[in-house]
Amino acid sequence: MYKGHKVLALIPARGGSKGLPGKNIRKFADKPLVAWSIEQALASKAVDKVMVSTDNEEIAAVARRHGAEVPFLRPAEFARDNSPVSEAIIHAVRTLREMGERYDIVLLVECTSPVRYPGDLDDAVARLVDNPQADSVVGAVQLTHEHPMWTFRLSRGYLTSFIAGGHKPKNCRRQALETTYLPYAHYLTWWKNYESRKTFYQPRTLPHFLKREQMVEIDDEVDFFIAESIMKKYIIGSSVKK
Questions:
Q1: Tens digit of each residue's pLDDT (9 = 90 or more) over 1-18
Q2: Are residues 20 and 57 in the same domain?
Q3: Is residue 1 one of the residues assigned to a domain?
């Protein structure tokens, strides 16, 4: 609990990944991938409950072994390839409410973006609660060579700038580009906001700035290799040095 507000850390981990089958419980730096996010959420002083939302019994068993609660399985209709994560979040929180548990803040912790430093989740919760004008907080990493001004689309087989006015000589210097960000890792808002808006991207969304190496989203084998390498160097390696 942070300053009187109950916080639910919710980790979505469905069983039907197509890009990398079984990725949520695949061994990642010597433990199942989902275990990293579970342990990070359990270590947060602000979090009251750590729950995994899954449709898969094997994932549920792994999650429980690593300390998360899985009080019920996610219904199949909320676990399809095209199911928005908002359905899983709303189902989880409303079901908990029917069980007599109420939370003020929902904190989505993505297990496919596991590169988090100690204190990241606490800092994100504090950023929301300590800024009364804010509706939500989203983890954000500054883009470098992935900047949208450098992107192209195909038009009749030829490369054309994806953004009007992009990729001109004056726009090709990294130092001259407007700073842009991509969301990663964790997202949080007041439950009342999410229940009505069904999104973490709200009129007054604050960034929780993350580091360059935290720009990780695991969807395939290449992502998995890169993420595991980053985890071993920046998270595991830094803790060993200490």
A1: 999 999 999 999 999 777
A2: yes
A3: no
